[in-house]
Amino acid sequence: MWLGVLYALGAGLMWGLVFVGPLLLPEYPAALQVVGRYLAFGLIALPLAWMDRRGLARLTRDDWKEALKLAAIGNLLYYFFLASAIQRAGGPLPTMMIATLPVVIAIVSNLRAGNRDGQLPWLRLAPPLLVIAAGIVCVNQVELLALRADPNADLGRYTLGGLLGLGAVVCWTWYPIRNADWLRAHPGRSPRVWATAQGVATLPLALAGYVLLWGGMEMSGSGFPMPLGPRPAFFLGLMLAIGLFASWLGTLCWNQASQRLPTAMVGQLIVFESLAALSYAFILRGAWPAPLTLTGVALLIVGVVRAVRVRPQCS
Questions:
Q1: Could you count the other beta carbons within 10 Å of the beta carbon of residue 203?
Q2: Annotated domain spans of the chain
Q3: Please, are residues 88 and 157 in contact by the beta-carbon 8 Å criterion?
Q4: 179-208 per-position pLDDT tens digit
Q5: Rounded to the nearest 5°, which phi and psi values hold at 119?
Q6: Angstrom distance (rounded) from CA 261 to CA 280
Q7: Are the beta carbons of 315 and 115 closer than 8 angstroms?
């Protein structure tokens, strides 16, 4: 079990990088960052696909359809919502909305996956979930106070960012549950091969999206310098880094964790992504978190440690 927790921690550290891109490329449209990231992911997956060609050849037509669904919703649509939210509301608000995923996924998984993993006792699950929720409230309170103190804050823009963040939460409630369902239904399949398959499935979707976006910008006369924007070298390097570490390596670590842990438990460990993203955001700000923020982070960690000790009970 603890090996699964370590894999989930590695996934969180990798996935936290996706919150950095929109902050470092504020002048780039969110849609361009989405297709750029997943084009890089797909291209990185091609040599890996050659190495895993035997395992990929074992995948059925239905498996590839599932990989396409996971790629479309869990990769492209999720990151479009997230990047758009970060550009409009800044890093902390969407980060803390994503931090609600441990609560949301644990509840949804506990309601639907009892026959497979056993039921996590609600009385034992509730306290760590409440501790996690309290941590989220603490961090959000700091950000809301900063927002109210800023006379130039665009509340409409922040509200839209919050709604887009909610869309990201919906996508990433669906993705890990659906992905874990496939992995647990195919215990003999390699998590590495499945991560590579999702990368291969993402490539044609990202390429089509890139072509459509480029054409749409040209037709609308947006003036944005396509295909790589005003900082092409930085854009390419960042997309390759996020594609390799966040998309492929992060997915690989998460798949390893999903095969070792119950869905409701592994869902709570997504909190590692939010902790990593918050750390990266404050590093970019060059500011130390407020005491209430640190309290919230401590509560999140305590909640996770308590949650992983809860054992499922077979019905």
A1: 20
A2: 2-307
A3: yes
A4: 888 888 888 788 888 888 888 898 999 999
A5: -90, 125
A6: 27
A7: yes
